[in-house]
Amino acid sequence: MSAKERFRLKRFSYHGQLSVVVIDDVTDLPALLPLLYMQSWGLSKAINTVQQHMVSICQWYNYWQCKHHRSFDEMLFETDQHGFRTLAPLNALDAAMVDYTGFCVYIDSGQKSIDANDDPGFKPVIANATHDVRLGCLTQFLLFLARRYVSGRYTQLTSKEQRTTFDSYRFRLQAARRDVCGRLNIRKRTTFSQVSQGHLVVRERSLTPAETQAITVCARPSTSKQTNPLNPWQRHVDQSQVAAVQIRNHLMIRILFNYGLRLGELLLLQTKSLVPYASGAGNALAITTSEGSGDPRQAPPKLKNAWSERLIELAPEDVKLWELYVDHLRGNPPHPFLLVNTRKNHAPLSMRAAQNVFDALYAALDQHFPALCCVNLGGTLTTLNAHMLRFTWATDTFEALVERDGCDFEAAKDRLRQLGGWSDTSPMPQKYASRYIAKSANAANVRRISAQRRLHKQSKPKQQEGGQP
DNA sequence: TTAGGAATAACTCGATGCTG
DNA sequence: CAGCATCGAGTTATTCCTAA
């Protein structure tokens, strides 16, 4: 038969509730197992969710038809070679696990190819997120089947055996899914302490000047005169929001880099947090709690401690950027918070969304500056998060306080404590101080060694030195 | 000095609204 | 309607602060 598209989706109304089923074109009836799944799981879910799952299952059924020339339903209900019917569903599930890879090829190729073509230039036609959604839904469906056909109705297992059998299916299905999961394969992130491909990645949690520079370049928003092809926020469902996203993220990154805020403090900023500086010109940033502001977020950010409340002077160009964003791009949401998401309601930016900004930024760095990120090319930047900008800020600020402003170490530590919102007894400023000492000691050491080498070179023509003392 | 607590980070997964 | 972006939530590890 034309193996192509034996199964399709159909919407129907069930007791007044709109729902979706997978229709088998051969019998013109709903496929049995998806129907059971929909009935026992899908009725309590929103139509979009059910549809999401049914789309995945439908593609799976079409794939199965292509590959094995019979439907997945038939596979589950046939008798095995010994005439036992009871084990057939479980055998089918075992077979399904093997076919995860083939299914990935099928959906990645736009449901055309079932062969694993090892073409290196092969480019999936769907995004990784979609790929993972498909696999996740399919796995959930297969787990539903496992739970159903392991149960006492279909097997003679004791309840304990049922549980272990089902657990084994759950484990194996999840493992199979994990193996082919698109996002996991793209982002192989490791933490700093972990060994990556044989060699240990050693680095501070602050950024090097090269990395800082790369981030600044990537975060620069496009203007009408000049677009920035490195900016990771080029596309958006609502194209009119692209400028808002770019400016907002640029503002976020600038504030974090220049003033070392914690992420929670950043998200608590309000439009009225920018106050004219008491003594003379300039503006200051007031970091404070937002009591009574009616934060609509599920998990509103909180200040870490009482010392976090502070006043920071803002550079003029940041003030301009702030005003540009507030006046023209932020919209007019009913809440007072500075940073908003790009949905229609312009709700305050959530913790999660803010972290996604850094995920996207890291993806851009990975793409455009592989030498910084890829371990094989000598890069050490294996992850990026908002707190790393704070570390960077603290290190740089301490250095500037000592070298430019001529503070002694105690004064610099106190100043840093005040600017960064650490408590009176916090050991953190000490940490940055010792980091600076280590750094300058290293620099002095390098200078000493190279001076020595020069000296050695000069003395060399005169006489050959003996062994080391 | 250390135990415990709160915030943050890292990693997933599920659910749902939005738009071309 | 397909695909995607985004949000909510759960779990665990790590960081930072407080108080004993």
TrEMBL record:
According to the UniProt entry, its GO molecular function terms are:
DNA binding
Residue ranges occupied by any Tyr recombinase domain in the UniProt entry: 202-445
Q: Which UniProt keywords apply?
A: DNA recombination
- Tell me which domain of life the UniProt entry assigns to the organism this sequence originates from: Bacteria
The record's annotation in InterPro entries points to:
DNA_brk_join_enz (IPR011010), Integrase-like_cat_sf (IPR013762), Integrase_catalytic (IPR002104)
One GO process term, biological-process aspect: DNA recombination
Residue intervals passing through the bilayer: none
Provide the protein name: Tyr recombinase domain-containing protein
Can you name the source organism?
Vreelandella sedimenti
